[in-house]
Design brief:
Layout (H helix, E strand, L loop, with lengths): L10 H7 L2 H23 L10 E12 L3 E11 L6 E12 L2 E7 L4 E3 L4 E11 H13 L6 E10 L6 E8 H8 L1
Antiparallel strand pairs: 1-2, 2-6, 3-4, 3-5, 3-7, 4-6, 7-8
Length: 179
């Protein structure tokens, strides 16, 4: 008997001729295999990422004129997740004693590695008169209390909602600690 003379039945015809017990086992195995494939396929997909932790690493002046100054904020972004986070942008508003003095948005994108930290630089412009008025008010008010605050958002690629962050502290204490 040669190979061309063997008549092969299609699988569906063979399955119809199988016993009910065998059909149930094959159906059960098919469902089990499909479920396992779905679990393996979804194992690497994060359901809900943890928000990144943002801190100010440094602030340095990069330009000054008679009316405004340009500051470069270096932000440290810590990723607590077990997968990398592709950061598209960071935006924030800076306040000094509850008065907005600056705002900015990073144009630099980066990927923060899993359980790692990355740096982002954000250039901001502020009116020199606003900052000087604030210092004058603080000095004539009897004490140098410089509460600062940063409020912003970290935008992650392919995610609709941004992660908000908020930082508060005492600028005078921070400057003393760095000296």
């Amino acid at each position: 008997m040669n190979a061309s003379s063997i008549h092969r039945r299609p699988f569906t015809t063979w399955l119809r001729g199988a016993t009910a017990s065998l059909r149930q086992r094959l159906t059960g195995l098919s469902i089990l295999a499909l479920g396992a494939a779905l679990l393996v396929g979804c194992a690497g997909t994060p359901l809900k990422p943890q928000p990144p932790e943002v801190t100010v690493k440094s602030v340095r002046p990069v330009g000054i004129s008679l009316t405004e100054q340009t500051l470069m904020f270096t932000l440290s972004v810590n990723n607590p997740n077990s997968f990398s986070l592709p950061i598209e942008a960071v935006d924030f508003v800076a306040r000094l004693s509850d008065q907005q003095i600056a705002s900015g948005t990073s144009v630099q994108s980066t990927t923060i590695p899993a359980k790692g930290t990355g740096l982002l630089e954000v250039e901001v412009r502020t009116k020199l008169s606003d900052v000087l008025d604030k210092f004058r008010q603080l000095m004539t008010g009897g004490g140098l209390k410089l509460n600062y605050g940063l409020e912003g958002n970290v935008k992650v690629k392919d995610r609709d909602a941004a992660f908000p962050f908020q930082l508060k502290g005492d600028l005078a204490k921070m400057l003393q600690n760095r000296a």
